[in-house]
Structure to design on (82 residues):
């Protein structure tokens, strides 16, 4: 019996149902808004936070959810294993 080794090919796939998300975060107190698909809504939260606290330092982050998909596996591409 012989063991066979080979490299597998993977690809990353973004989740289209979620899309790109944005979060505004105060760099003074570390409070942040709920993530939103709109960068403008995250910025609006920052402006509201300025008015409520006087804090003036913020960070806007964007992120997306994705998964890794095996692309060279028979269950994915219908080819027989080698």
């Amino acid at each position: 019996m012989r063991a066979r080794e080979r490299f597998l090919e993977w690809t990353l796939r973004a989740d289209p149902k979620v899309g790109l998300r944005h979060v505004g975060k105060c760099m003074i107190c570390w409070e942040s808004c709920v993530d939103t698909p709109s960068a403008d809504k995250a910025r609006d939260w920052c402006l509201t936070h300025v008015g409520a606290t006087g804090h003036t330092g913020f960070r806007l982050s964007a992120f997306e959810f994705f998964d890794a998909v095996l692309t060279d596996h028979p269950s994915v591409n219908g080819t027989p294993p080698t």
